[in-house]
Amino acid sequence: MADSSEFDPALALSHKFPDTTHSYTERDVALYALGIGACASDAVDEDELKFVYHENGQEFIKVLPTFAAILSLGSIPSGIDLPGLQYDPRLLLHGQQYIELYKPFPSSCHIQNKVSLAGLHDKGKAAILEIETKSYEKESGDLLCMNRTTVYLRGAGGFSKSSSPFSYSNYPLNQTSAVKIPESKPFSVFEDRTHPSQALLYRLSGDYNPLHSDPLIAKVAGFSQPILHGLCTLGFAVRAIVKNICKGDPDMIKSITGRFLLHVYPGETLVTEMWLEGSRVIYRTVVKERKRSVLSGSVVLRGLNSSL
Ligand SMILES: CCCCCCCCCCCCC/C=C/C(=O)SCCNC(=O)CCNC(=O)[C@H](O)C(C)(C)COP(=O)(O)OP(=O)(O)OC[C@H]1O[C@@H](n2cnc3c(N)ncnc32)[C@H](O)[C@@H]1OP(=O)(O)O
Questions:
Q1: By its UniProt entry, which PANTHER family does this protein fall under (predicted)?
Q2: What is the pLDDT of residues 240-295, one digit of tens each?
Q3: CB distance 229 to ligand 1 below 6 Å
Q4: Which mutation among 22, 73, 123 tests ligand 1's pocket best, with the greatest number of atoms within 8 A of CB?
Q5: Which residue CA neighbors atom 56 of ligand 1 most closely?
Q6: In a designed cystine with 148, which of 47, 98, 143, 270 is the match (CB 3.0 to 4.6 A)?
């Protein structure tokens, strides 16, 4: 548990994060798509080739919606630094991700990020931080997307100054990741095997946390081997929705929530079940080999074809 005398939640909430910048090219876009399994089982997949190649002479490579999450990673070049917050970075886990997409991504771009603390919670055995990043296209000034990243800091809780646990968030309740999974049969199911080297490929998109590559660090963190990045699992799940429900059109995705329920080991098979509720897709991803749910959430769509 953190030393509660050293952490002042009010000070943390008043902290001003500096703006950060990030640039990407079509190469980054294609590498990201490969990192979340696009074209891995069929190199000429008619829904996915456009994410990695100028298919049929298309001018620009298309960008998958979860690429948005990569833009906010540029905000943490040297870890998450909050005044007074003591935590062991080796025990950090990604808890949730919320993404809003405001316009289709260009295939290359210079980005300006505005970062703020959107939530802070004391869970006793853990501290939860919610970091919001708004990403603007530098050239036009347009807001492209917003990411809210929930990090679960094991061992860093216990900083509350009163008997009720400290809890602060500055966003609407309907933007949380908790979903109720319907009892009915899923509308659609997509199965995809991650590759044993999946995390080694995915990390090249910008998340170099050794938890995903170093066996010794993984053991210290409590895992038998390096685990998959949460955002890689989310990428697989949303790619399944783009394929099975959006007929390959990434621009139909308006917002995404995801809660990481359990770790995934690279090489495991991910089965994503999807239920349609109006323009919202509820989804759950299960590791087939262990029969365990590892991710659940929802995706809001725009322009859903009523013939579905
Ligand atoms: C300058 C800064 C700018 C920064 C800008 C960008 C920041 C980007 C940072 C990105 C960092 C990414 C690093 C990536 C790491 C990874 O990818 S790790 C791999 C992916 N994640 C996982 O594998 C985690 C899987 N989940 C779990 O293992 C467990 O769910 C858990 C997180 C360990 C929690 O389990 P447990 O301790 O058993 O929790 P509970 O006892 O059930 O609940 C305690 C309270 O916590 C709440 N809670 C539980 N799970 C989560 C969750 N996933 N997210 C958020 N909150 C969670 C739960 O509701 C309980 O609260 P109460 O109900 O109020 O009691």
A1: PEROXISOMAL MULTIFUNCTIONAL ENZYME TYPE 2, PEROXISOMAL MULTIFUNCTIONAL ENZYME TYPE 2-RELATED
A2: 999 999 999 999 999 999 999 999 999 999 999 999 999 999 999 999 999 999 99
A3: yes
A4: 123
A5: 95
A6: 98
Domain 9-172 shares a fold with domain 188-301: yes
188-301: which CATH architecture? Roll (3.10)
Cα-to-centroid distance, 233 and ligand 1 (Å): 14
pLDDT of residue 72: 81
> What is the domain partition of the chain in residue ranges?
9-172, 188-301
User: What six digits make up the tokens of 35?
Assistant: 């990192």
The candidate with the shortest Cα–Cα distance to 115, out of 55, 151, 74, is 74
Determine the residue type at 307. S
Closest residue by Cα to atom 35, ligand 1, is 261
* Ligand 1 binding pocket includes 149 (Cβ within 6 Å): yes
Class of the domain covering 9-172: alpha beta
- Complex-level ipTM: 0.95
